[in-house]
């Protein structure tokens, strides 16, 4: 049970990547967020309530799906109005669609498409 007063508020997530600029441009298009800052070492997007940062990691290897030898590291769950159109748009921006998909879940939450961002 959460405490009555939170200790902190989430303001920003920072993701490891090979190229901060490429990752920021991809997510800026997907989310429609502004990119107020980018250089070779860091890029940041700002959204309505949160920010998303991208930091380079030498020899970065993006997680694979399905990953039987490790963890997913991190993923974003997104809501879209038109699943097919959203998938096409993400693929056009450089995402890939793994052959194995997680499938559908009944109820309010569903995983019906998985696309991976450009590294």
UniProtKB/TrEMBL annotation:
One Pfam assignment: Glyoxalase_6
InterPro entries for the chain: Glyas_Bleomycin-R_OHBP_Dase (IPR029068), Glyoxalase_6 (IPR041581)
Cross-referenced Gene3D superfamilies: 2,3-Dihydroxybiphenyl 1,2-Dioxygenase, domain 1
Endpoints of the signal sequence: none
Residue intervals of the Glyoxalase-like domain: 13-104
Record's protein name: Glyoxalase-like domain-containing protein
Organism: Pedococcus cremeus
């Amino acid at each position: 049970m959460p405490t009555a007063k939170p200790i902190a508020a989430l303001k920003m997530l920072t993701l490891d990547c090979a190229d901060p600029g490429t990752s920021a441009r991809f997510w800026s298009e997907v989310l429609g967020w502004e990119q107020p800052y980018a250089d070779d070492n860091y890029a940041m997007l700002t959204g309505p309530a949160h920010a998303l940062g991208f930091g380079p990691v030498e020899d970065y290897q993006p997680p694979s799906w399905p990953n039987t030898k490790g963890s997913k590291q991190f993923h974003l769950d997104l809501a879209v109005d038109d699943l097919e159109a959203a998938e096409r748009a993400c693929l056009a921006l450089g995402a890939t669609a793994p052959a194995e998909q997680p499938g559908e879940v009944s109820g309010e939450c569903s995983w019906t498409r998985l696309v991976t961002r450009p590294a």
